[in-house]
Amino acid sequence: MTGDEYRAALRALGWKQSDLARRVQMSKNACSNWAQEGPPAWVGEYLGALMAIDDIHRRFVRPLAKGVPKAPATPEEENAGPLPTGTRAAAVAQSLLSFDLAAVSQKVAPDCAA
């Protein structure tokens, strides 16, 4: 992950560098340096997993909330490319995206399935 990709990932999550620093218990200076030099590999995996979880939440959880209007897409979401590939986080995200929630719902609770 490059410094530009790092900054884009934080924007997509709605985070600042200080938010990430607090969550991963690192100094703000370290997180700031990553914006220039690129973060360590584990940070790319962490942010990739969080973006995948956020994407799954937007696709499957938010639409299920009754009476809650669907959030409009942000400019970052509209211009976002595909999720990262080749990492463990990407593999988990891909398996979750291919999960057939409707089929499971029909088997588990047929009266509640849409």
From TrEMBL:
- InterPro entries according to UniProt: Cro/C1-type_HTH (IPR001387)
Top-level lineage group: Bacteria
CDD domains the record matches: HTH_XRE
Protein name (record): Transcriptional regulator with XRE-family HTH domain
Species per Swiss-Prot/TrEMBL record: Rhodocyclus tenuis
Give the classification, highest ranks: Bacteria, Pseudomonadati, Pseudomonadota, Betaproteobacteria, Rhodocyclales
